[in-house]
Amino acid sequence: MAYEDEELNKRRSQRAEEKKRLQVQLSLLKIGAIVTAVTLVLCATALLITYGLVNLPQPGPDDLESSTLQPPSTTESQPVQTLPPEPDTVIHFVAGGDVNVSGQTVGAGTTASGYDYTNVFLDLVPVLGSADLTAVNFEGSLFGAPYGQKNKSAPQQMMQALANAGVDFIQAANSQSIINGPAGLIKTLQGIRAAGLEPLGAYMNAEEYRQAGGYTIREVKGIKIAIVAFTKGMNGSGVPPVIDGCINLLYEDYDTTYKTVDTDGITRVLRAVQNQKPDVTIAMLHWGSEYNNQIKSTQEKIRDLMLREGVDAILGTHSHYVQTVEFDQQKGTMVAYSMGDLLGDGDKPDTDYSVLLDLQITRDGDTGKCSITGFDYIPVYIHNETETGGGIRLLRIREAMAAYEQNYIGKVSDEVYGAMKEALAKIEARMSPEA
Question: How far apart are CA 49 and CA 54, in angstroms?
C-alpha cells in the first residue's frame, strides 16, 4: 500500500506529538504518585494521634540535657544512601548519499496528473521516519521546467517526497549548486524550505550566510548537534559575484584543479561551530572524484584538519560509489568517504546501490560526555524498471532479499536478487567497524 503525502506527514507529526505527550504524562504520574503517598502518610498519622493510638513522646529535662550534651551514638552503622545512576541518552542521526536528478529519476515520479515520488522512497520510510535527525545530498536544482538531465531540475514534488519519507536536512553545497546560476540556487533553497526541510552549506546571499555562520545547530533530547556541509566545487564553474561567499568550499582552486585546500576557510567555519559548544559535530562533504574509488591526498588532508578542529563524523558523497568507512570507537570519530547514490539511474557498475548510515550518538548518564558510540548501515538498492515500463524504487536490500527467499508476492526477479546479493557482499566488505 502506498502512503499518500498527507498521510505520511500526519504519521510523522503524530510520532513527535506522541513522544511529547508520553513524556508529559510520565512526569505527571510521577509527581502525582509522590503527592498521594505523602498525603496518605500525613492523614494516617493525624488520625492515630487524634484517637490516642499513638502518643508522641514528650521531651523531659534529662532528654534535653542528653540531646544537647551527648554526641550521637556511633555503635550502629547507618546505610549509605546512593542515588541510582542516570540513564544514558541515545539519539540516531541517519544520512544518505546522492539524490541525483536525471531524466530517469524525474520520470520515476510521473503520473497522469503530474508528479508523485512517494513510491520511490516508500521502502525507506521505516528507517528515515524513525531517526531523530536525517540528511541526504540533493545533486540537482528546483529551478522549474523543463525538468531532467539538461538543467538538472526536478519538480518540487521530489523534495516534498523526501520530506514525507522522514528527511530533515538537504545538502545544497555540491557540484550542482549553481548549475542554473544565482537564480537557480535561490529557487532551490526556497523549494527546500517550502517542503519543510533545511538546506546545508549554501545560502541565498551574504547576509543570510553571515547570520547562519555557515553551519546549522539542532538540539535533540538535550544533545546539541552541529551540522556543516562543504563542496569541492561546482563542475568547474566559478561563483558569480552576487553569491560569492555563500557556499562552503573545500578548495581555493575549486573551479580548476582542486589541489589547494582552503584551510583558512574551513577552519573559520569549524571554529565558529566550536564556539557554540556542540556535543557532536557532523560534516557532510561533497568531495573526491566521480566513478573513482581512490581516496585523494587532499581528502586525507581535509579529513585530518576537520578531525583536529572538532568534527566527529565526516559523511561523504560525489563519487557515486560506496567507499571505505573508518570508525574509531575509542575517539568516537567516523569518516565515511562516500555513501554512494541513494537515487540515480544505476546504469554504471557499482552505482546501483548505496548505504544509509545510522550514527548512534550517546550521552553518558554518569559523566555527561557525549560521543558517537557506534553505527549501523542499511544497504539500499536502486531498482530501475524504466526500460520495461516501470519506474525507480529504492529497496532495502536485506528486506527485499528476504521477501524473495520466502517467495512473497511482488518479490523481485531472479536477476535483481542476484544483483542485490552481489551488492550486499561489496557493501559489507567496506563497512568495517575497526579504525
Answer: 5
Whole-number Cα distances in Å, 22 to 13, 17, 27, 289? 14, 9, 9, 47
CA angle (315 as vertex; 311, 316 as ends), nearest 5: 125
Burial class (CB in 10 A: 0-12, 13-18, 19+), 94: buried
In this structure, the number of other CB atoms found within 10 A of the CB of residue 165 comes to 25
**What is the C-alpha separation between 310 and 332, in angstroms, rounded?**
11
Rounded Cα distance, 91 and 75, in Å: 49
Q: What is the pLDDT of residues 310-364, one digit of tens each?
A: 999 999 999 999 999 999 999 999 999 999 999 999 999 999 999 999 999 999 9
At 390-400, the pLDDT tens digits run 789 999 999 99
User: What does the alpha-carbon distance between residue 299 and residue 133 come to, in Å, rounded to a whole number?
Assistant: 26
Beta strands in 202-279 (DSSP E): 215-220, 223-231
Model confidence pLDDT, tens digit, residues 190-221? 999 999 999 999 999 999 999 999 999 999 99
Question: Any residues with CB less than 8 A from the CB of 239 and at least 6 apart, and which?
Answer: 178, 245, 246, 247
